[in-house]
Amino acid sequence: MKYFENQIAVITGASSGIGRATALALAQQGANLCLIGRNQTALDAVADQANSYGAQVSRYVADLADDASVQTMLNAIAPLKQIHMLIHSAGTFSMGTLAASSLTSLDYQYQVNVRAPYWITQSLLPKMPTFEAQIVFINSTVGLTARGSVGQYAASKHALKAIADSLREEINPQGIRVLSVYPGRTASPMQAQVHALEDKPYVPENLMQPEDVAASILHTLSLPKTATVTDLRLIPLKK
Ligand SMILES: NC(=O)c1ccc[n+]([C@@H]2O[C@H](COP(=O)([O-])OP(=O)(O)OC[C@H]3O[C@@H](n4cnc5c(N)ncnc54)[C@H](OP(=O)(O)O)[C@@H]3O)[C@@H](O)[C@H]2O)c1
User: Fold this and answer.
1) Which of 35, 38, 235 best tests ligand 1's pocket when mutated (most atoms within 8 Å of CB)?
2) Residue 175 Ramachandran class (φ > 0 left, ψ -120 to 50 alpha, else beta)
3) Would you say 107 and 56 are in contact if contact means Cβ atoms under 8 Å apart?
4) pLDDT band of 1, cuts 50, 70, 90
5) For the chain, what are the domain ranges?
6) Which ligand 1 atom sits closest to the C-alpha of 21?
7) What percent of the chain has pLDDT over 90?
8) Number of Cβ atoms within 10 Å of the Cβ of 120
9) Which protein residues are within 6 Å of ligand 1, measured from CB?
10) Which fold has domain 8-224?
11) Does the model's pTM come out above 0.85?
């Protein structure tokens, strides 16, 4: 029997990068999936691959910056009786100094990186079985230590850390684990965008791979229920 057989995982950002790799790794270990993203074609491709591993898959197109869209997605998920794993991987990034960055871009990152995972967790928590369920927040190394020119993104990820840390204290007593993952540079469309903004050549093979992050997450999610990993910081080996 596979480790996550008969378990349901809801994954945001499932259409790409770390979310996609985590969804596929969970499917290979027997989980059934609810995939959330904006890009229907990309979600369909992930669903087809997960189906080929034997997973049952449902997909929900939702823009996490749009309350009406999030509400529609939550209504569509509502009939599910149980959710065993909730993986928040969707995220958005912008770069710029405080002097040059707009409030609009700050608000947008707050909406996608903070408010949406907060709201989705709040809505789905009642469906998460005690002594079984697990929640994962994909954060960032800058959610631990900010750098210049990423203040808005880092602030959103610091807020996400606070939400995860607080929630962990609240629901660990019910046997629900909460993991924050702090990846460094990981090959993905978002990281390609970061390199373009930094005017640096993008060499994905020198970076961490989404599958590396997914493998660490699955390892952590499969720990015996006597232990919980709270934080996972991963950086590329090549410097
Ligand atoms: N790559 C890195 O180096 C790195 C490092 C540290 C942390 N992270 C974090 O890792 C997470 C995953 O990023 P990634 O590297 O895997 O990037 P990615 O491949 O570009 O994927 C980003 C995902 O977020 C989804 N998304 C973005 N905006 C959204 C919105 N408004 N509504 C719904 N979904 C939205 C995208 O969905 P669609 O494509 O369907 O729109 C996509 O599935 C993010 O939270 C990011 O902050 C990444």
Assistant:
1) 38
2) left
3) no
4) confident
5) 8-224
6) 16
7) 99
8) 22
9) 13, 15-19, 37-39, 42, 62-65, 89-93, 112, 138, 140, 183, 185-186, 188-191, 210
10) Rossmann fold (3.40.50)
11) yes
